[in-house]
Target: deoxyribose-phosphate aldolase
Amino acid sequence: MLFLFRGLNSGAVIVTTPQSVAIEDECTNIFSKGGGELLSKHAEVPFLGAIPIDPLFRDRKQSDDNSPSISALQSIVSQDSVPAHKARSSQQWLQKNIPEVIPASDWSSGSPVLNSPNYLLWSELERMACHRAHPNLESDRYDYCTKLAAVHPISKPILCSFAENREEFEFLKKITVAAVCVYPSRVEDAVKQLKLLDSPLPVASVATGFPSGQYPLTTRVDEVSFCVQNGASEVDIVIDRSLVLSGRWGELHEEVHKMKEACGEAHLKAILAVGECGSPDNIYKASMACMMAGADFIKTSTGKEVINANLPAGLVMCRAIRDFYRKTNAKVSYLLGYFY
Model:
């Protein structure tokens, strides 16, 4: 059965006994170990870890966190797919013994495949933004820009852990994100707060009916204009995938061209949603159509599709960028888009 999961991100977790009986019909030493790990290597699936035999494990209290069994389980949980722990009994045990794991009730409904480290990061960002009560919406927006918008994206303890001397620490302090990306209705707020902070970070916005792009062209172009008028210096547009699937490359070019005109001096990033383009040939042609229409960037995905960024699609897009440069001497940037 284990071989059915080879190469698949199925979310299934195989639990086996820690003796060689796991792979043999007869076993003379039931306290041997390593059978599960050997089987995982043979089946080419990840081995998450082994939990030492401990008769007191079921009654283990939080004060016994340093026991080998608890430490091993914490390591396994940190690798395993979080949604596999939705069982009530599992959630109760995790909340009691590993409090840093976010309970299932707080999981983001739009992100079903995140693992524990992702959720720990989400928890840290939430803590940073909500470390104090906000008396009004303006206060909340201020914290959003200062804490989450990466004016100071890396905390001092993390910087210190990477820097070996003062010079490296000062260099790492200069790290920032490329832009603060928000929805169109929040562009004005983000621009205002960043100005108050005297931050040079640009504001980017998604537009054109993100993430589906299934809206009339007039409203999609108007949305681009709205973003720019409110201060966005970058606009992430999503193309109409129906034009790609039906091979209407002229219409696709015309739509992206009108969106580029609405951008004015702002950069336009064209999101292809490669998982919905149908074929590598379509991804290549869509890339070319967008670049010929004036896109400054081409981006793999919104992160909302079933299939998002992947290596084959990225390779096709990079080759399209190379071919476009050879023919026009114009440089276009590639963006890997994945929303966790």
Notes: Confidence is low (pLDDT under 50) at residues 1-10, 20-27, 80-84, 108-120. The beta strands are 180-182, 203-206, 234-238, 267-271, 297-299, 333-335.
